[in-house]
Amino acid sequence: MPDLLSRHRAVLPSWVSLYYEQPIEIVSGRGCRVTDAQGRSYLDFFAGILTNMLGYDVPEVREAVERQLRSGVVHTSTLYLIRSQVELAEQIAELSGIENAKVFFTNSGTEANETALLLATNARGSDQVLALRNSYHGRSYAATAVTGNRSWKNSSLSPVDVHYLHGTDRERFPQLSDREYLDFCAEDLRQVLATATAGRVACLIAEPVQGVGGFTAAPDGLLGTYREILAEQGVLFVSDEVQTGWGRTGEHFWGIQAHGVTPDVMTFAKGLGNGFAIGGVVARAELMDALPAFGISTFGGNPLATTAAKATLDYLLAHDLQANARRLGTLMADRLSKAVGALPGGGEVRGRGLMLAVDLVDPATGAPSPALAARTLEEARERGLLIGKGGLYGHTLRMAPPMTLTEEEAREGVELLVDALTAACR
């Protein structure tokens, strides 16, 4: 392992970070568990950053992929008809709730968001974009530009003119009631439109639950209010569902449904392929068809990825994994809230479905504690549990296990996490 780590550091960028003081190499997996190169087994509560949505070695997905491989066709490009691509697009268009929807496939969420920005700026003839503070939308030029989290902004240069809105910073306004905060945010949007823009904004892009931002979410209904205000001026609304799609939030199939609104555009990726690289955009046909030049995606929507994605989506729907996320998410959140509240370094516990977060704070000052979060990450790993980390200050633990999680695994994982938190907070 030390040899592989040194080789990694020699040939990969320093900004490609690794978890743990002694990084691990995962070599096999089944269900919600993985095994590293040293033979150590772990319960996986981060799922490759919410990407292994069904877990590992799922027979239905594996067999579909093997059938495609046996055909000899892994790639053809979008210059030819691809049956699995068309079938998957039909299914997503129907599930989206967007009227007269069309779908374009990409390789990642970054590419999906880049495409959504292209559609919106073209349709509106404007480079002005609204985004939320603490957001993350990808690592490309425009996706980085609309990201509202300083830790992930590599450049001050931007191909778009961005203005950031309130929405997930409720704790900064303790003097306001929930209703007053919603009214404040709505008025702030009106002020931004009236004073900080040139009068023709392309779109608002927003994550219903901010992933890298630490699973923070705007209060239910706020994004719907934003949508109503923006619609008065024809501004488009893009919902970034890269982490919140496919029922992971439990109550809804798409995260934006918590706000009672259907967006003009939705982007998706991560869990859809259960590990295979796939992303995409679903939008009203008039927006999707309006691009004036030719466009293809060499690898986007390829036969192998769309076959895997179709099998993944069929499995998720047939087993009602959305309901599983709702039930087990509630169970886990309740247990975590009780345990974390008794710890000196425990902060807010929040989440929706199988997107759960715990903030770690300095016991003396209450300030965010990235050091305590990093220590808990190590303690969890020592106990055989893999979790994630995020938040504006890197002080948030993130749990997003495969949606096939069982109740027994949910209880086991929570107890391991509580034990790790207790050790870290001593």
Description:
With 426 residues, the chain is α/β, with parallel strands linked by helices. It has helices at 2-11, 47-50, 59-70, 83-96, 109-124, 141-145, 178-195, 222-231, 285-288, 303-318, 321-340, 370-382, 407-424, and strands at residues 26-30, 33-36, 41-44, 101-106, 128-132, 161-165, 203-206, 209-210, 216-217, 236-240, 265-268, 279-284, 346-351, 356-360, 385-386, 388-390, 396-399. β5, α6 and β6 (161-165) form a beta-alpha-beta unit. α3 packs antiparallel against α10. The longest helix has 20 residues, at 321-340. The radius of gyration is 21 Å and the shape is globular. 50% of the residues are buried.
Question: In short, what is this structure?
Answer:
By secondary structure, the protein is an alpha/beta fold. The chain has helices at 2-11, 47-50, 59-70, 83-96, 109-124, 141-145, 178-195, 222-231, 285-288, 303-318, 321-340, 370-382, 407-424; strands at residues 26-30, 33-36, 41-44, 101-106, 128-132, 161-165, 203-206, 209-210, 216-217, 236-240, 265-268, 279-284, 346-351, 356-360, 385-386, 388-390, 396-399. The protein has 13 helices and 17 strands.
Q: Which descriptors apply to this entry?
A:
single chain; 426 residues; alpha/beta; seven-stranded mixed beta sheet; four-stranded mixed beta sheet
